[in-house]
């Protein structure tokens, strides 16, 4: 974990009418990571965010930016060191996209040409086509406006990005795309991002660490998302996380721990006899691949031998070692045979995993995490420094394998779901 760029120290906010919006909040926002503030409506998320760029002043406590009290810093300079993205983007309606994005560089005195060049570069970075540069905000979709909002916030390359429900006003599919884009941008730019949302799924997908606030602006729990899911601090947090947190927590375990069985996998040019050798009384199916090892579908060797060369579609596959155990479990549950098909990066079959073997891998992953947590809690082992329980999982690429991996699958549903189906269909035809 990187050092804290923003430190919130015992901060409270009481509004003039007596409302306590934030109550003795202490939090650290590390550099190069996404910290999410999540909680029910009115729990003080926006107030907290706005105290960081001094749009709201705390009643007590202090906030440090890179070790210096923000109260001692000129407010304009402070705000320019922090990109700020809000719901509905808050774009200047009378300015074109390119001029919206160039706003802060222009305020900083950049020459118009340089500011526009920077804006064009950012349009590309956030996935906006260059042809949109001259459009006005009303000529963009909600999702495109949010992308402009993110590009505008990044224009002067601030070390900090404050994001207040930036994706709340768009539909779930567009929202998913924007989340993916943010993770990608963060991987490239490595900002300290403080992200406010009331959506726990968004918090878990995006956060390196998540602060759950309860009404009255009190911190209920501050932990990496996998730790939150596996060990909620109290019934309020557990309730806020929702009923299926166990399943969602599997997104943080890589499928690399699965014991894949290569035995029931045969090439399409195998003889019926060779096929028959691969089946067991428990598993009467084999997975037939093309000569390059790409899956075609499931076959029953007994029927195959009788000339009934039909293939059952194999459905979804998971990328072994990259996708999470949650994706592998989903593949096994949805598979007509109950076996999940594991493939490598090129889509060639590595092996298959039964529902039971996924369950075994889940048990092993939980046990391993318990050991890591115990080691981390034991003083003097040195494990604490590695942040073992939560960051360990992240460090092993669990984001790639986990929430992002799952998102990749969800987001590219047409691709992931469609291609295998059609390949299986084509295979079934070819094998007739
Ligand atoms: N200017 C104000 N004067 C008085 N009370 C305020 C003011 N602004 C916010 N509040 C109150 O402070 C509390 C926290 O508000 P805040 O907007 O920070 O919550 P939030 O968690 O961001 O909510 P939401 O998810 O609904 O946006 C709420 O009870 C709100 O009504």
TrEMBL record:
<dbReference type="InterPro" id="IPR003593">
    <property type="entry name" value="AAA+_ATPase"/>
</dbReference>
<keyword id="KW-0547">Nucleotide-binding</keyword>
<dbReference type="GO" id="GO:0016887">
    <property type="term" value="F:ATP hydrolysis activity"/>
</dbReference>
<feature type="compositionally biased region" description="Gly residues">
    <location>
        <begin position="382"/>
        <end position="420"/>
    </location>
</feature>
<dbReference type="GO" id="GO:0015418">
    <property type="term" value="F:ABC-type quaternary ammonium compound transporting activity"/>
</dbReference>
<keyword id="KW-0813">Transport</keyword>
<keyword id="KW-0067">ATP-binding</keyword>
<dbReference type="InterPro" id="IPR027417">
    <property type="entry name" value="P-loop_NTPase"/>
</dbReference>
<dbReference type="GO" id="GO:0005524">
    <property type="term" value="F:ATP binding"/>
</dbReference>
<comment type="similarity">
    <text>Belongs to the ABC transporter superfamily.</text>
</comment>
<feature type="region of interest" description="Disordered">
    <location>
        <begin position="372"/>
        <end position="432"/>
    </location>
</feature>
<dbReference type="Pfam" id="PF00005">
    <property type="entry name" value="ABC_tran"/>
</dbReference>
<feature type="compositionally biased region" description="Low complexity">
    <location>
        <begin position="421"/>
        <end position="432"/>
    </location>
</feature>
<protein>
    <recommendedName>
        <fullName>ABC-type quaternary amine transporter</fullName>
        <ecNumber>7.6.2.9</ecNumber>
    </recommendedName>
</protein>
<dbReference type="InterPro" id="IPR003439">
    <property type="entry name" value="ABC_transporter-like_ATP-bd"/>
</dbReference>
<dbReference type="InterPro" id="IPR017871">
    <property type="entry name" value="ABC_transporter-like_CS"/>
</dbReference>
<feature type="domain" description="ABC transporter">
    <location>
        <begin position="6"/>
        <end position="241"/>
    </location>
</feature>
């Amino acid at each position: 974990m990187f050092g804290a760029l923003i430190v919130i120290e015992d901060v409270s906010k009481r509004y003039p009418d007596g409302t306590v919006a934030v109550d003795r909040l202490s939090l650290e926002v590390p550099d190069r990571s996404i910290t999410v503030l999540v909680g029910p409506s009115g729990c003080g998320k926006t107030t907290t965010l706005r105290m960081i760029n001094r749009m709201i002043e705390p009643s007590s406590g202090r906030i440090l930016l890179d070790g210096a009290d923000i109260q001692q810093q000129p407010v304009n300079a402070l705000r320019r060191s922090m990109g700020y993205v809000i719901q509905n983007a808050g774009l200047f309606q009378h300015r074109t996209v390119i001029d919206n994005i160039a706003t802060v560089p222009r305020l900083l005195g950049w020459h118009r040409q340089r500011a526009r060049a920077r804006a064009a570069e950012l349009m590309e970075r956030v996935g906006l086509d260059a042809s949109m540069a001259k459009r006005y905000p009303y000529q963009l979709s909600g999702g495109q406006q949010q992308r402009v909002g993110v590009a505008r916030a990044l224009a002067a390359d601030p070390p900090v990005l404050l994001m207040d429900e930036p994706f709340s006003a768009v539909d779930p599919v567009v929202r998913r795309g924007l989340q993916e884009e943010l993770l990608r941008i963060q991987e490239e730019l490595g900002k300290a991002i403080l992200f406010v949302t009331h959506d726990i799924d968004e918090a878990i997908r995006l956060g390196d660490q998540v602060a759950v606030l309860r009404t009255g602006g009190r911190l209920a729990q501050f932990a990496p998302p996998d730790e939150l899911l596996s060990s909620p601090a109290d019934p309020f947090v557990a309730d806020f996380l929702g009923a299926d947190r166990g399943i969602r927590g599997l997104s943080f375990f890589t499928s690399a721990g699965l014991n894949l069985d290569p035995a029931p996998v045969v090439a399409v040019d195998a003889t019926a006899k060779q096929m028959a050798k691969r089946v067991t009384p428990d598993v009467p199916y084999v997975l037939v691949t093309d000569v390059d090892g790409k899956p075609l579908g499931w076959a029953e060797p007994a029927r195959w031998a009788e000339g009934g060369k039909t293939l059952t579609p194999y459905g979804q596959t998971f990328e072994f070692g990259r996708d999470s155990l949650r994706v592998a479990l989903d593949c096994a549950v949805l598979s007509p045979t109950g076996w999940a098909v594991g493939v490598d990066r090129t889509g060639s079959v590595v092996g298959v995993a039964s529902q039971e073997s996924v369950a075994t891998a889940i048990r092993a992953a939980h046990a391993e995490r318990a050991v890591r947590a115990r080691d981390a809690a034991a003083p003097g082992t040195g494990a604490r420094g590695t942040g073992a329980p939560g960051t360990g999982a992240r460090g092993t690429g669990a984001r790639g394998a986990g929430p992002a991996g799952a998102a990749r699958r969800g987001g590219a549903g047409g691709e992931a779901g469609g291609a295998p189906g059609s390949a299986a269909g084509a295979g079934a035809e070819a094998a007739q």
